[in-house]
Write a structure and sequence with these properties.
The chain is α/β, with parallel strands linked by helices. It is built from six helices and seven strands. Helix 3 crosses helix 4 and helix 5 packs antiparallel against helix 6. The longest helix has 20 residues. The protein is globular.
């Protein structure tokens, strides 16, 4: 029985021409772990949500990551073909988590939401899930992802979490507005 919707958090475009080789290896490892989680639980999963706004030149982060998830699931044994829903508007962890719960409530009522993120953002994602979940049951999974961005470290994510908890919007906006 299909009882779970999986939301896969994106981390930029999947583009070896634009990304640092270390970031690409990290993104590949992360997406492979995501595909393994989905493949191992495919009988319970009704849909996959992949959020992510426009990054550049009309290219959406969600579309870029969705094509990679779909390709990995098609190569799995047995081949997995689950519906993928792209959410083209979120641009931050906050809006990604909030929209994920809203989408489940509106389109997948009665189903659980599994939020999949990297380990660095796991605690922040868990806190936000506790804040936004309403009546939706959830689980948060964190997978390793190598990244060279200054924001992809536990200390910066902890500062962002403190800013969210204490509603220090100015601090949060300052951190989120800095280039990667």
């Amino acid at each position: 029985m299909k009882t779970v919707v999986v939301q896969v958090h994106p981390y930029g475009l999947y583009d070896p021409g634009l990304r640092d080789p270390v970031e690409m290896v990290g993104l590949d490892e992360y997406l492979s772990a995501v595909a393994n989680l989905i493949a191992a639980n495919a009988d319970s999963i009704s849909a996959i949500i992949i959020p992510g706004g426009m990054v550049s030149n009309g290219i959406y982060e969600a579309d870029s990551i969705a094509s990679q998830v779909k390709a990995r699931l098609f190569r799995s044994e047995p081949r997995i073909d689950l519906p993928i829903v792209t959410d083209l508007y979120p641009v931050s962890t906050i809006s990604i988590v909030e929209n994920g719960f809203r989408m489940v409530e509106e389109s997948f009522a009665g189903q659980d939401l599994w939020l999949v993120c990297d380990k660095v953002r796991w605690l922040k994602t868990l806190y936000l899930a506790r804040h936004f979940h309403g009546a939706v049951r959830y689980r948060v999974f964190g997978f390793k992802r190598r990244d060279t961005s200054w924001r992809s470290n536990h200390f910066i994510q902890f500062l962002e979490l403190i800013a969210i908890i204490f509603k220090l919007e100015g601090v949060r906006r300052l951190v989120e507005s800095r280039p990667e």
